[in-house]
User: Fold these one by one.
Assistant:
Number 1:
Amino acid sequence: MDKSYFEKYIKERYQKEIERYVRKTIYNKKIYEILQITIIVSTIITPIMIVLELIVKHDLAYISLAFSSFVNGNIKY
C-alpha cells in the first residue's frame, strides 16, 4: 500500500467513520439523559400518587400502579 492510497483512505473512509461515531455518541448520550430524567421523575411521582390515592380514595390507584410498573421495569416496551 503506497502512501497516497493510505492518505486517500484516511480522508474518505476513516475520517467519515470517526465523525459518524462522534455524532452517534452525542445522540445516544442525550437519549440516555432523557431516559434517566424520566425515571427519576417517575420515581418521585409514584409515592405521591400512592399517598393521594390513600387520602382521597380516588381512582388514582391505576395510575400509581402504572407508574410503579414503569419505574420497576415490569412493562416491556
Number 2:
Amino acid sequence: MTGNIRNRNVRFYEEKEADRRAWEILHSEAVRAFPSQNDFIIQAINDFYDRHLAISDDPYLETREKEDAFADRIVEKVEQKVLGKMKSMKYKMTVYDEFLKEYEYRKKHCGVKDNIQKKQRDRER
C-alpha cells in the first residue's frame, strides 16, 4: 500500500488499570483474529466513535439495548421452562402410550372387558 502514512504513538501506563487492560486486550488471542494489531485498533476506534455518535443522536439507545437484552433473557428462561415441561409431558405421554399398549394386549389376550363402568351405567338406565 502506498500513500500517506500517519503515525501515532500510544503510551500504556502499567500503573493505570485502564491502560493495563487495553494493553492486555491488544495482546490477547482475540486480536489474532484480525489481520494485524493495526487493523484491530482502527476497527475499535471506528466502532467506538460510531457508537458514541449513535448514543449522542439517540439518548435512549443504551436503555433500549438493555431492555432488549433483558427481554431476551426472559424469553430464554421461559423457553427453558417450557421445554422442561414438554420433556415432562413427553415422559407422561410415553408412560400413557405404554399403558395403552399393555391395556390393549390384556383386552385381546386376557379377556379384560372394555368400559365396564359405562356398560353398568347403561344397564342402570
Number 3:
Amino acid sequence: MNGTDFKSQLAKECHLTQREAGAIIKGFIKLIKKELAGGGSITLTGLGRFYTTPYKRNSIITPQGDKLEIKPHKVARFNPCKELKRIVASEA
C-alpha cells in the first residue's frame, strides 16, 4: 500500500475527505519526527513504539583496507507491540 492508497483507506474508515485524511497523516508524521529529533519516544497502543538509539564514534576497516571513521549519531527505530507481531505472524 502506498501513501495515496493509505490516505484513501483512512478517509473511508474515518468518514473524512481526502484532504482531511492527508492533513492527519502529515501531522502524525510531523509529530513523530519532532519527538524523535528531540531524543524522545512515542508509544501507540495497538501499534508499537517509535524511539531512537544512539551510536558512539567508531572506526571500521573496509574490504579494501581503508579506515573509515563513523561519527556519533542516532538511528530511528520501531518496535511493534505484541498484538501486531501476533497478527502479522498469523498472516504468514
Number 4:
Amino acid sequence: MLDKEDLQAISQLMDVKLAPIQEDLSSVKDRVTSIEGRMDRLEETVTRVALTQENVVLPAINALAEGHELIHQELKRFATKEEVQDVRDQFQVLKTVVASHSRDIEQLKMAQ
C-alpha cells in the first residue's frame, strides 16, 4: 500500500508532468483571447462596411442607374444611323440640284 511519502512523490511527479501542459494551455488561452479581440474588430469593420454600402454605395449606384436611364431616354430622341444617312443622302441631292440650278441661272444671265 502507498504511504503518505509515496503519494507526495506521485503528486510532485504529476506536477512536473502537468507543468508544460498548463503552460501550453495558458498559451492557448492567450491566443484565443487575442483571436476573440481580432474577431470583435473584424465584426465592427464588417458592420461599418455594411452600413457604408447601405447608406452610401447603394444610393450612389441607384443614382447612377437613374442617370443612365435618363441618358438612355434622351438618346432615343436622337436620329438613328439610318436616319442620319438618309439626311446625308438628301443633302447630297440638294447640293447637286443647287449646283445645277446655279449653273442654269448663270447661263441665263449670260444669255441676256
